[in-house]
Structure formats: structure tokens, C-alpha cells
Design a protein that fits this description.
Elements (H helix, E strand, L loop, with lengths): L6 E6 L4 H7 L8 H10 L3 E10 L5 E8 L4 H6 L2 H17 L4 E4 L6 H4 L1 H6 L4 E2 L2 H18 L8 E5 L4 H10 L5 E5 L3 H11 L6 E5 L2 H5 L4 E4 L18 E4 L9 H5 L4 E4 L2 E3 L2 E7 L15 E3 H11 L14 H13 L3 E2 L3 E2 L2 E2 L2 H14 L6 H7 L6
Parallel strand pairs: 1-3, 1-4, 4-5, 6-7, 6-9, 7-8, 9-10, 10-11
Antiparallel strand pairs: 2-3, 2-13, 12-14, 12-15, 16-17
């Protein structure tokens, strides 16, 4: 008897009003107040059927993206129980379709207690996907450093959102590869307590601050993992030749960086190439591909973690809560590699970063003063007085 395919579901939601039009083309042209009002009462629904995922050794999986249609600010502002209800209903829909494991995307994995309450109410195991997101983000950050010819052993790195589940794990994984790491978060008390708890375990110099601008001005490597709905990285703060890796959705880096800082490399950290010939078909319009706003065969790392767990038949709550087990990050990275998932090509501001673009960025950094500079040298290179 043929063994049935393992199945997963993944909870999605629009990150912006532009996303709403991608989810539902009929929303295009409608005003923001109308769209937001509609989303207040719109129920969760199955949006996408995912097929064609196939590992190099022939294993396959199928799944569904189920929409919990709320914008990020609505998820943060609505009564917590209402948001939980929407997310759990989305998972129930996936389970009714046959899913054996569920993944939480974007703010559905942030709201509340990092998926713990949702998992308790879910009919199937739940993962936030944060373990593979972390692994992909660290790979992306240091790939960017290699491209910009930064000597990471002499570099200062900033982790923004350091007290979050993703940021906290990234601090531990970045620290062995750099000279200094600066932890940034909004809550001073929580940040100070977290830094005190880990500083003695870090193999490099460390400090912390709630002033992200001050931190970024000292750094050659910046990794963002915040839950902010506003820009937190501005062009005037970035050093010449810096690398910024975004793990946050919505984006943390101001689009002004793309226009004003050709000498800085920004990359989205959490994208992976899915093995096989994956198809993301809209359920309401059969035969129509769902626009993930990503290149072909590309999925977010949190989506990919859910797919990997299905392929491995690991139907378990793999990544949950605020604390991330570093061993699980290492394990899911290994499983993903064995399943044929690889880091996607670099991308930023919804566009591919070509080899030509990388060369141009390197050259702009050289013309402006080089990469991996000390803060004082960088200031001089940019024409600013040193202090």
C-alpha cells in the first residue's frame, strides 16, 4: 500500500495594504479604511494549495497556506483572544484538509507568547519556524560579509531585537565570529537583564543599548529581528561598506537606504530555495499561481521549516515560545540541507541582488573609504569630523 504524503499547513497574513491586493486581487483600488474594516470581520480561509515539494531522494509533501487576514498593526492592537481565535481557526482549516503539522508566519508567531497558547489550542502540532529562520539569517549575514570582504574577526555586529526569541539566539550564534556584539532592544530593563544573563557566556566583547542609531553607527554587521512596524535602520547611521541582514517582516530597513547608500549591502535573511518543482496554486482561482512576492521556488525560512518537518515526518511542536534551543537550530539546518533546501539568492527591497549589484556596492564602499572600518576611520572616510 502506498504511503500517503505527509501534509502541512502554514498560517499567512498580509503585511501591508499592498499585500492585501496580492492576496485578494478584488481589493485593488479600494481605500485603506474600507480594506481595514473588511479585514476586521473577514474569517480565516484556505488560500493556497502547495504541491511539487520533492527531496533529492524522492520524498514528497503537500500543504496549504491558510490566511488569518489581519494586518500587523491589527494583530498588535486587537484583543489578544480575538487574534488567537483567528489563528487557531486557520490551523483548524489546515487540519481539516489533512495537515499534520502547522507553521506560524510573520506576526502570528510573534503575538502573545510565541505560539505557546496557540499550540495548546491547536488540533495539530505547531511550530513558529524560528529555528530555520535563525539558521538562514546567520548564513545570509556572513555570506554578505564575505561578499563585502569584511574581516568578521575584527568586526562589530549589532543584533536588533536581541531580547526576542530570534534575536536572542542570533546573538549567541553571531558572537563566536566577531570581535564585539551590541545587543539592541526597546525595553531597557529587560535588555539589561538579558545581557547580564549571557555576557559571561559570549566569546567576544559585548554591550547593550536601546539607542539603535548609536549602535548601528559602530557596526559593520547588522542583523535585525524586531517586531517593529516602523523603519528602525536609517541611511545616515550606516557605516561605509556595512552589511544589513533583515529577518523581520515587515521590513526594518528604510527604503531610503536603497536610494541614498549604494555603498551598503542589505539582504533579506530568511529566504530558501524549495527542492523539487513547488507550485503555489490559489484555491479560489484554480490554475492561478499565488504571488508570494518572491522568486520562483523560493519560500520564507519559517515556511521551509514547516515543510522540512512534514518531509521528515516530525509532527511535533518543534520551535515554540521565547527561548530557542540552539541545538534545534543546528538540527533543523542539517535536516533542511538533507531535504535539499538551500539558501536563496540574495534579495532586498523586493528585488534580486545580482552579482553586478554586489560588485557595484563593493566599489562604492571602496570609493567611500573601504569596508569593515573602525568607527573613527569610517567617520573620516565619510567626511565627518572624528571625536
Amino acid at each position: 500500500m502506498t504511503k500517503s504524503l505527509p501534509k502541512f499547513c502554514f498560517v499567512i497574513h498580509p503585511l501591508s495594504l499592498d499585500d492585501v491586493a496580492r492576496y485578494e486581487p478584488g481589493a485593488a483600488g479600494k481605500g485603506a479604511p474600507i480594506i481595514r474594516k473588511i479585514m476586521e470581520w473577514m474569517p480565516s480561509y484556505a488560500a493556497v494549495h502547495v504541491t511539487g515539494i520533492r527531496t533529492p531522494d524522492g520524498r514528497e509533501a503537500e500543504g496549504w497556506f491558510v490566511a488569518a487576514p489581519l494586518l500587523p498593526d491589527q494583530m498588535m492592537e486587537f484583543p489578544r483572544e480575538e487574534v488567537y481565535k483567528r489563528i487557531v481557526r486557520a490551523i483548524e482549516i489546515g487540519a481539516e484538509l489533512g495537515a499534520q503539522v502547522a507553521g506560524l508566519g510573520a506576526f502570528t508567531g510573534v503575538v502573545g507568547d510565541g505560539g505557546v497558547t496557540i499550540a495548546e489550542r491547536s488540533p495539530i502540532p505547531v511550530t513558529t519556524g524560528n529555528s530555520l529562520t535563525i539558521a538562514a539569517g546567520i548564513q545570509s549575514l556572513f555570506r554578505g560579509a564575505r561578499e563585502m570582504e569584511i574581516d568578521t574577526t575584527q568586526a562589530t555586529a549589532v543584533v536588533a531585537g536581541a531580547t526576542g526569541s530570534i534575536g536572542g539566539a542570533c546573538v549567541r550564534l553571531v558572537a563566536p565570529k566577531v570581535r564585539k556584539v551590541i545587543l539592541v532592544a526597546r525595553n531597557q530593563t529587560r535588555l539589561a537583564k538579558y545581557h547580564e544573563s549571557i555576557a559571561g557566556q559570549l566569546p567576544c566583547e559585548s554591550s547593550y543599548t536601546t539607542d539603535i542609531s548609536a549602535a548601528v553607527r559602530q557596526a559593520q554587521l547588522i542583523l535585525t529581528a524586531t517586531s517593529s512596524t516602523q523603519d528602525v535602520i536609517e541611511p545616515e547611521d550606516l557605516q561605509t561598506g556595512a552589511v544589513v541582514c533583515e529577518l523581520s517582516l515587515p521590513h526594518d530597513v528604510s527604503r531610503r537606504v536603497a536610494l541614498e547608500r549604494p555603498d551598503v549591502l542589505v539582504t533579506e535573511g530568511g529566504n530558501m530555495l524549495v527542492p523539487g518543482n513547488p507550485r503555489f496554486e490559489r484555491i479560489r482561482e484554480p490554475g492561478t499561481e499565488f504571488d508570494l512576492n518572491l522568486p520562483p521556488r523560493t519560500a520564507l525560512a519559517c515556511m521551509s521549516e514547516t515543510m522540512v518537518l512534514a518531509l521528515e515526518r516530525r509532527f511535533e511542536p518543534y520551535t515554540l515560545g521565547r527561548g530557542i534551543d540552539i541545538n534545534k537550530v543546528i538540527e533543523i539546518e542539517r535536516m533542511a540541507t538533507e531535504c535539499g533546501f538551500t539558501l536563496a539568492d540574495m534579495r532586498a527591497f523586493d528585488a534580486a541582488i545580482t552579482p553586478e549589484k554586489i560588485r557595484a556596492t563593493r566599489e562604492a564602499a571602496r570609493l567611500r573609504g573601504g569596508s569593515a572600518l573602525s568607527p573613527v576611520t569610517a567617520q573620516r572616510a565619510m567626511g565627518a569630523p572624528s571625536t
